User: What shape does this take?
Amino acid sequence: LAKTTQPVSMDSYEGQEVNITCSHNNIATNDYITWYQQFPSQGPRFIIQGYKTKVTNEVASLFIPADRKSSTLSLPRVSLSDTAVYYCLVGPDTGRRALTFGSGTRLQVQP
Amino acid sequence: GAGVSQSPSNKVTEKGKDVELRCDPISGHTALYWYRQSLGQGLEFLIYFQGNSAPDKSGLPSDRFSAERTGGSVSTLTIQRTQQEDSAVYLCASRSGTGSNEQFFGPGTRLTVL
Assistant: This one.
């Protein structure tokens, strides 16, 4: 399984853009990159998934360089409610391999 | 539109007792995962079921832990002879199996071993 490395924690202020980078040097050809968000006392929630280049949805953008050895989750104009733990996962979208969560990045948004 | 459900929501047990935790995945989802999460920690993978294939048990921490999935739907995680270090939130997630890595999580079962 592709191992991922993320910062342990990040701090930001309301209204700022937050970029969380995940390293996955041994990503496989058929692996996708998926990000989850977890609020306290809740299970994780899917945010976004991508394979290459850029993906954008109503919540976030995901930037993936050509070599795919890293990815950056971008949260535009964060609010206090974006305070959560963010997990980066790498793996295929089908098949027998289980996706596993790392320790994640704890984002704290201040007023 | 039912999501993933888990029961019980809270379980308090005494050390040495056996416990069973239940997960009802989203109908039609072929993949099912069990995780546990200790206070302030990340998710620890326990076991993964995919369709009719043999489960991936590589995350089970000891032989006191076992899980089964009957009829490709409901899953039960059993912990025998519980220990205090088993105290955690046990999360279940299901995934459609193809085309997306989106796992849908249940609310979890908070297990406290006294």
Observations:
- The first strand of chain B starts at residue 5 and ends at 7.
- Residues 46 and 60 of chain B are 5 Å apart (CA to CA).
- Chain B touches chain A at residues 33, 35, 41-43, 45, 48, 50, 53, 56, 58-59, 91, 93, 97-108 (CB under 8 Å).
